[in-house]
Write a structure and sequence with these properties.
Radius of gyration: 19 Å
Strand content: under 5%
Number of helices: 7
Number of domains: 1
Distance between the termini: 55 Å
Length: 194
């Protein structure tokens, strides 16, 4: 990758990092609030999901419609950053799903779902990047970023649905209504296994 391509990618990446902080911050608030006694996790996840998806969809639209701002601010030599920015920011929509569902399964101590989501996110970005970047440069990197986030979002949706379904069919895995109940179940299981 040339120095110019690397510089362009870093400009796009800097913008994406700021945009991706939105669902991350909402997810952190969900972890903090969802972990409190009496918190209704599913209701909080729904509200957080609407907020995060709305903000990320707006951000993706802004990146698509306003990507020429990059070249206006940084100059024509950063046209590649403007070209890859819309796809990289659009990956924030599935990232919102991944981030918030990851918060849910962490609050509810669903360890298998947590591992499945994080492992998919990592592998689904790294593997396509290893294949695409050598030939396609930053376009390959942005495609890998989008592909990985789409696959991780889909995995998060499946993992949460399976987790909720297992909770509804097996009374020992019943979905707690509150984080306090999730903690209580975790303590009960730990005490019974000791």
């Amino acid at each position: 990758m040339t120095n110019d391509a690397y510089a362009s990618f870093n400009v796009a990446w800097g913008i994406v990092a700021v945009a991706f902080y939105v669902p991350t911050a909402i997810g952190q608030a969900l972890l903090a609030e969802g972990g409190r006694d009496g918190a209704h996790v599913h209701a909080q996840v729904r509200l957080a999901m609407v907020l995060a998806l709305g903000l990320m969809a707006a951000g993706a639209a802004a990146a698509f419609l306003g990507n020429d701002v990059v070249t206006s601010v940084y100059g024509g030599q950063y046209a590649a950053a403007a070209r890859v920015l819309p796809a990289m920011v659009a990956a924030g929509v599935p990232w919102a799903v991944t981030s918030l569902y990851l918060s849910e399964v962490r609050i509810l101590h669903r360890h298998l779902a947590t591992v499945a989501i994080t492992a998919t996110l990592t592998a689904a970005i790294v593997v396509p990047a290893l294949v695409l970047v050598p030939d396609d440069g930053i376009d390959g990197a942005s495609a890998a970023w989008l592909i990985g986030n789409l696959l991780a979002g889909a995995t998060a949706m499946v993992a949460v649905r399976l987790s909720r379904w297992r909770g509804s069919t097996d009374p020992s895995l019943a979905e707690p209504d509150t984080a306090a109940e999730a903690t209580e179940v975790g303590i009960t299981l730990a005490e019974s296994s000791a």
